[in-house]
Design a protein that fits this description.
The chain is an all-alpha fold. The protein is 75% helix and 0% strand. α11 crosses α12.
């Protein structure tokens, strides 16, 4: 618990200093370039930006401990309310992307390892290479150009069609391109780790012993080698879950998806300090929780790990 709080404190302090050291004044952005010095001074005083940085940070920290993330400078609404709505939208995007990446990655890695040097292996390796080499924002733009603008099959922007009442079918169609964009790179990493781990296990003596006792090669792999691949695969899943969360910041802006990532970028540009700090805190908390769950799952898939404090 103390480590969790320390990480969140470190993230909040780093983001706070970065925001205040960057050029730009929220009061100036709110009032515009023609604002009078008196109006700027009055708004700066109202927002508390005239106080020393340690005092500003201290006030914010005290409010956070009381469950108050402040009020958005630009939107004039509680930060907690804004983040709750945007976080829901981000989960709608990130969860299907992570599930798709996990299923495709493990399946491709297993097939590639079991049928190495065959056409399945070559095809999977090619897709892995493309997924690892192509930046996520570039992949998103390519998918928009091909399937949205050229073919006209899928919508390219937003969470629902403009002017229409959101429904499951419409949201699903809007999800397809951003989910594919977000899932390809982590799927490639998961497949690569699964394949390499499986190939290492296949070389072990216990697999040869299973084959010598009459098991087919594939049956020996499934019954014996597969269970020993889960620890590195689960570790990779945790890392790629964090990648999906971080990558959603880019994907949401490419596809104009109204999630916490898009809000974070827009708020950083407009110097909306409370929103940026609150969003950063939420994302950091998710990263820490994911890492904790990954470590806790080790003992479930491998009982040997329970006695090592993992």
């Amino acid at each position: 618990m103390m480590m969790f709080l320390f990480v969140l404190w470190g993230v909040s302090l780093t983001v706070f200093l970065a925001l205040h050291l960057a050029p730009g004044n929220p009061a100036q952005l709110l009032l515009g370039s023609f604002a009078t010095p008196e109006a700027l001074s009055r708004l700066t005083l109202e927002l508390g930006l005239d106080q020393p940085l340690p005092v500003q940070y201290g006030h914010w920290l005290v409010h956070v401990f009381h469950g108050d993330l402040g009020t958005s400078i630009m939107l004039k609404a509680p930060v907690t309310t804004i983040l709750a709505e945007r976080l829901h939208n981000s989960v709608v995007l990130a969860l299907p992307a992570f599930i798709l990446a996990t299923v495709l990655g493990i399946l491709a890695g297993l097939l590639s390892g079991m049928y190495r040097r065959g056409w399945v292996d070559h095809t999977a390796n090619t897709v892995m290479f493309v997924g690892l080499a192509m930046p996520v924002f570039w992949l998103g733009l390519v998918l928009i150009l091909v399937f949205g603008l050229s073919l006209g099959w899928l919508p390219t922007s937003g969470m629902a069609s403009p002017g229409a009442e959101p429904n499951l079918s419409d949201v699903t169609r809007h999800l397809i391109l951003p989910v594919l964009t977000l899932a390809l790179a982590p799927a490639a990493v998961i497949a690569q780790i699964t394949r390499s781990t499986l190939l290492d296990e296949i070389k072990q003596d216990y697999v040869r012993t299973g084959v010598a006792k009459g098991l087919s090669a594939n049956r020996a792999v499934v019954r014996h080698a597969l269970r020993n691949t889960w620890i590195p695969v689960i570790t990779t899943l945790g890392l790629e879950m964090n990648y999906v969360i971080g990558g959603s910041v880019l994907v949401e802006n490419v596809f104009n998806w109204p999630g916490i990532g898009q809000l974070l970028v827009q708020s950083a540009i407009s110097r909306d300090y409370p929103v940026v700090l609150g969003a950063s805190l939420i994302l950091a908390a998710i990263f820490v929780v994911v890492n904790f769950l990954v470590e806790a799952s080790y003992g479930l898939v491998d009982p040997r790990q329970r006695g090592h404090g993992v």
